[in-house]
Amino acid sequence: MAGTGTIKIYNVGDGKDFISNLPDEILHHILSLLPAKDAVGTSILARRWKSLWIDLSAFNFDRPTNQLFHLVHRLLKRSSRTAIRLRIAMDGSGVTVDRAKFQCFLYAAELDKVQELNISLDLKSNPFILPITFSSASLNSLCLELKCVLYIPSWGFSGLKTLMISLVTFANDNSLRRPLSECIFLRKLVLHGCDWKNIEEISVVMPTLRELSITFSRFHAHYLVNSKVKIDAENLLSFSCRGCLTFEFVLVNLTSIVNAYIDFKSGFPSNYLYTAAHEIKLLSGLHRVESLSLTIDTLEVCIIYHLLLPLILCSLVFKLHFSSASQE
What we know:
alpha/beta; 2 domains; 8 helices; Putative F-box domain, leucine-rich repeat domain, L domain-containing protein; F-box_AtFBL13-like; LRR_dom_sf; FBL13/AtMIF1-like
């Protein structure tokens, strides 16, 4: 009965091991949801499980030690798969990343087998140079969350379709320009919470791009004062932008855009008019969007100055949404 605290145990299947009788494809999917050490640990359960992990298509190293870089290299070399999803996350683990071991891993990693790569590390804001040998023609998706000053002397991922860069301080213009100009097949681009103090201009010119999301941290917004963010993407379908608006947006050829989400907060509370001017220019460049979502914060500056964006309200926007809270 409810509230008695009694736990009943039912014997289903007369104690038979039904899981081991599942097809390999289903077992591989189950194991791919586990941290890598747990997935490999299942090899001791029974003979049926001994080599299952070798054929996994996804490995998740969550909060590992610095020894993992050598282990990942061995694992990739041994795996029979050629389309692996690999995630390495040490951020928040309390482990200080050994930059030398990480550098060696990137030099030696057998990335030709990896289709999706997600690396999340805290390098304690130290400068880090992406190795020239860190490249792959087969990689489709790359996610880099590196708390460091990042140098990108070359870019060997021209075949990428998805690129996500978070919490990075770009060392110079080239460190941003290279990945944005050499990913000629890119369809999705996410720039989240990056530090722009070494960047004079952000230019996203990509005819293949379908989805673009940019989040500007309020802690770094002042670095972009009087700067320009140019977006030229004639086939862009979805656009999302969040943060403090302290710069000018230049939108070019956004004729195919379907959905847009804008969440801006003033970077200069004492100068709302400065922010409002940039905000109106951005929104006027989105006048052909089919569905536009704006937060109340986005409209607050314009409302104060009685600028209720008649251009937007009377334009070709088919659906206009307002929300009181930011989307996560």
